[in-house]
């Protein structure tokens, strides 16, 4: 099953479960995979930036992809960002063979000019093979690479294999509007736009034309509902639900290891991960941060009973 | 009246009002100043990053400070960030003479090492004079300069004139805790910590030890109430109010000219500014963005009647 | 006398002379100006990056331009780079009135995309007035802004006022070849290309099509001779002279205040400046650095008698 | 044979030879290795930044180390810089087993504060094992990470495994003087300092206290002679030889793929590499660049007969 530009809905960014001693926690990985199937996601992205991919050896990465592929029936996107095309190609070919539907590629933070960015994606697609569908990750806040709508259009039009844009520019609403305008005026073919950036603007991004979400919020059920409600033009209900989650969502969306620590902590409290451990070098929550999260979740639970599980 | 390290409460960052043709709008400036007094702020910061200071000529900057000083009885902090110490000194001396209580200094984005950052503030304080109280602006997201708590402590301890930290690191909660720990263990004297970053974490920052807010949200009344409620240990009420504003606050907190455009638009709709114009080069809101803001504000108004005014 | 795109030859970047106590040294400024006339330069750039412009107050900058304009008959280019268009406009209008031929504008280091760079120069030219000839400063090493040849072409073609490119990209030889190719294929009008970057590649840059040099080497006589010899197709002689200077030229070309300290030291030893003082914050040479420079100059003097003066 | 802090002399950075079709050229690799032995280098660094390491698959990197180790009797340093500690550890352990003497680690360009830099090297040493000697690569121009002398001292004193500093800061002479001062005042143990940055300041760096060179100039024989002559206090002779090479050395030292292209071209013309091909994505010299290099080398040959071979 290959990733295509018609993918829509919610494709969570999954963390990588570890035991406290640093080993990959396979039982948690299986449990998380099954849970994502149960709640009805439309795919999953693994080994992304927050999947602690750089801490995994090549063989571990492959084992994780194999384990997910064995029990997950929807498209699996695998992060293959690497400092060189050799490592990128090796991982991309391996994971496609193991059942991935496509790969995600972030730009190196040394790219500056429009031509450098377009050239990089051309070379990357050549390196991994034009038969491997890929996702552009557009996240200036993390990567310091700014892609104008025109640059994205050039990448899309030059590379048949480009199936999707992971949109996490900020501010980014008008960018979605511009890209959808390119499609309407015929200057760009359609690609899927799924939004990241922690989902911080999901409520309006879907209204602007995004096809869904591709982010790692600890309650993907909410993302699914908001995308669905917006699709049904039930605007107030979509915002009511989104707003109830926003105070915690904002907390989780903090950059770097702290945001991941919050996410893993909540997934542990929800019974999905056995531990919230990160592999070293790691960050951990202070007692005060955990109390703040508990408090925020207790408030979400007043509106969304799915946060109730958290209370036990 | 000099700025001291005991300042607490809410010190809004005020925008600079312009006419659509680019002239400074003095009537709006007066109206805004009086409104800030009425709602009970504890000071005001003008000519900051979002005050479009780089678009103002020296004489205009002085005129604005003079106009505010004439009718505002609380401390006025003036942004004097400049690429060179000559311009910084000239502006700092001029505005202090006109009645400013202190100045705010952001680091140039070329600083890298700890020693460079500490050295910069030492030289800046020497340049403007040790009698001029100053505020450190710690905003890595905007300036790409990362100050550890130890670096802030060094700046505070080396410079008697340092009265306040405008804290807008992100993530930043543990940083406040660490700095307050330095005070408790006696390794750092007390300075005021007022938080910026659009107020996005104000609800917890005050709990962590911040003395208040120093940011430009279009409803400073909310900031005032949250700071007060937290001070009275009315946690749930503080969060209830904060959370009601958060969906719009998040929208306004978008980086760059878009965030400012939102803020000016709301202040115009609230009757405080005659126009939401920015001086060129400027950004303006699309019709869709204005609709989104209107929608968000209508939702805030369900909880906070002060957003009702917006509806007229 | 306005700067035009037909300027050729050597236009030194002049330092700003200071007394050890930080005051502008007007006698040295006059002496330096007269010396530049005597050796036959084709213009001069003042208040550039190495002219310590950010340490000068507006009135001082104006006084320096006035002093140079009074005794210098060739085009004077003035650096007006500023964080905001208001200060840039104010300085540009003032210095043009005082007799400047044009201004030089470096891009702010926050620009990223091609459109941002082109837009910046459009706005800058609008701000200072389309009647003010300007120079693009293309120095990625200092400013972290990378301009492709296409971007430079867009700036040139959009702005009639663009008269010259100060070329200091590195590597940069092929860039000159590409830009001159644009002229030949009719896609770009002619602009003057004078090279900076300390002159480190002047020997080949002139062969590639540069019109001369716009840099601050302490022996502009050498730059003049190399440009002339290359123009006369006396390649070996040009390189012989250039190579004799290269060991010291490389030493002077060190980034930041150290390079400037070397340059001012040599100009002092040559009797042109009364002091090698920089205004604070300043850098000064260690005794070991001075010895190294003396040694290098004694070696240059074996080939170029003009370095003899240094020995006295 | 482990790398120790007593290593001195010249340790060239070796390029990776490729066939025009992109395969590793093993015959050239052997020939280059034997040539380095013949000219008397004191070690070799492979898979460094200019060794095109990111374009090599893990198995290829191992094969190259094994091939060099089989015929080279001096210390082999292997670049193991990687975006994550897992890949760094895997490569470091593998190459040490294959006979490497130590590894070289460059900092990721996202590091900012002093503590982040020190913490990174601590974590890296833990990841690869405290038994693996490592080299700090201090190259701000390439990596945008600025290490003060104090930061280097902290890394050296915290990590027994730190054996050497590859010094390529620019300006950097006073940094060497400061570090050697730390040794004299007893605050830092001795580590080897070998200089990179293309050797652009080798003539003075050795006088300042550097133990030699660790760079990739195409005539390492010159580097060897300059280090030896300086050691024998034959200053003028050292500079005479260095200065004869400087015009070409400067040309080769251009950043990025162009500098490497020049180096490989000259090594090919010298009969050491069969081809100057880079693996894709690659850069190649224009005809004009090749002519410029030929011209420069013909001038070097007037003084250094070893450049004569180039003429055939």
Automatic annotation (TrEMBL), chains A, B, C, D:
Q: Give the superkingdom in one word.
A: Bacteria
Q: Name one GO molecular function term.
A: 4-hydroxy-tetrahydrodipicolinate synthase activity
Q: Does the keyword Lyase apply?
A: yes
Q: Which InterPro entries match?
A: Aldolase_TIM (IPR013785), DapA-like (IPR002220)
Pfam families, alphabetized: DHDPS
SMART domains hit by this protein: DHDPS
Q: Does the keyword Lyase apply?
A: yes
Question: Could you give one GO CC term from the UniProt record?
Answer: cytosol
* Parts of the chain that traverse the membrane: none
Query: Keywords on this record?
Result: Lyase
Family classification: Belongs to the DapA family.
Instruction: Provide the protein name.
Output: Dihydrodipicolinate synthase family protein
Q: Which organism is it from?
A: Hansschlegelia zhihuaiae
Lineage of the native species? Bacteria, Pseudomonadati, Pseudomonadota, Alphaproteobacteria, Hyphomicrobiales
């Amino acid at each position: 099953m290959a990733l295509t530009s018609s993918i829509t809905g919610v494709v969570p960014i999954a963390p990588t479960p570890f035991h406290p001693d640093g080993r990959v926690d396979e039982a948690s990985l299986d449990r998380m995979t099954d849970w994502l199937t149960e709640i009805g996601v439309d795919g999953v992205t693994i080994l992304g930036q927050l999947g602690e991919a750089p801490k995994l050896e090549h063989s571990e990465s492959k084992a994780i992809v194999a384990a997910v592929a064995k029990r997950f029936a929807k498209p699996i996107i695998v992060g293959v960002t690497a400092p060189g095309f050799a490592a990128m190609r090796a991982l991309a070919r391996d994971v496609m063979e193991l059942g991935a539907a496509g790969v995600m590629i972030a730009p190196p933070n040394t790219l500056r000019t429009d031509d450098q960015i377009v050239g990089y994606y051309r070379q990357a697609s050549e390196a991994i093979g034009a038969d491997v569908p890929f996702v552009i990750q557009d996240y200036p806040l993390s990567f310091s690479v700014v892609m104008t709508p025109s640059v994205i259009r050039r990448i899309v039009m030059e590379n048949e294999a480009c199936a999707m844009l992971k949109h996490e520019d900020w501010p980014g609403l008008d960018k979605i509007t511009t890209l959808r305008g390119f499609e309407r005026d015929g200057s760009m073919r359609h690609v899927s736009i799924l939004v990241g950036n922690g989902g911080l603007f999901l409520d309006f991004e879907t209204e602007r034309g995004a096809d869904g979400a591709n982010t790692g919020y600890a309650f993907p059920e909410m993302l699914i509902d908001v995308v669905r409600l917006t699709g049904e033009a039930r605007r107030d209900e979509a915002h009511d639900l989104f707003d109830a989650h926003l105070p915690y969502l904002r907390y989780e969306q903090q950059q770097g290891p702290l945001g991941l620590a919050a996410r893993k902590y909540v997934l542990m409290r929800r019974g999905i991960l056995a531990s919230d451990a990160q592999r070293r070098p790691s960050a951990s929550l202070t007692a005060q941060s955990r109390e703040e999260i508990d408090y925020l979740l207790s408030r979400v639970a007043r509106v969304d009973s799915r946060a109730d599980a958290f209370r036990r």
